[in-house]
Amino acid sequence: MNLSNEESALFFKLWFSLLAYANRHLQVVPGIVEPEDILDEPREQVVKIRDALVKHPELLESYIRENPATLPPEELAVVSSWRHWVSGDFFVVRFLKPYAVFLSSKEPGHLYGVISLYDPLEEVLGGGPVPIYVRALLLPFRQRIIYDGIIVFHSIYFGPGFRASLNDTYNELKEREGIIEQLTDSSGRPQIRTSLDRQKPRKPAPDWYPVVAEIVAQAEKMRQADTKVQSAAFGLLRAAAALARSTLADPSAKEEHIQALRQVNSALTRLKKLLY
Known about the structure:
The protein has helices at residues 5-26, 35-38, 43-55, 58-66, 73-81, 121-124, 160-176, 209-221, 228-249, 254-275; strands at 86-95, 100-104, 111-114, 132-141, 144-147, 152-153, 180-184, 190-194. By secondary structure, it is α+β, with helices and mostly antiparallel strands. It folds into 3 domains: 5-80, no CATH class; 83-198; 209-275. The radius of gyration is 27 Å and the shape is elongated.
């Protein structure tokens, strides 16, 4: 999903005004005084101004206070929301229909749903396979998240193991906290909303613990068998029941779940050796 052309034009009007203001104070790139001067500058020069502004957030505060471009209140509110920008390195891990998903590289990691400007982000990023490692500045814009129009690529090859790890992190964060889709409210005040906020609340599951505990108790009695295959199958049943009981007893005890899963895998391996 992209911003409309009108919204993209508004963003660049406000952003270039802020960048020109920052450059007038910091003198990062000589000759840039007015917002229109930004248009003629190479991308690398604009990045220098952008990065200098991020290091000096007090300039954003003084811009808001002085309002040098005499912005109307609704436009100044957009600029005010940039107090809550997110700058750094990210892994682009998904291209979804509503946005691209950026995973922050710093701990604790978060997922951000980033909307493109004029051109779809998948095209901006070359249409290559994910993950893509980038440096970017994410900005609130009218209760959505965009980027500042410039993405710096890091040329790094990711092996299968790291890709799998990133995919696991994506799935875990999406399940636990959702994808952050909004950083501020319409007035520029902080207000986090995620993809989970849009989901209908799920009905709580029944309390399966007594049922599973009874299965575990009955499975423990199943020690006698006529064949080795039956014995191995009963062992797999006991291990699987114990794993289910572990997840119900303490859903947060990941290490216990992993240990119980190892027992399941061992029991399954024994059964496979007998059958194949």
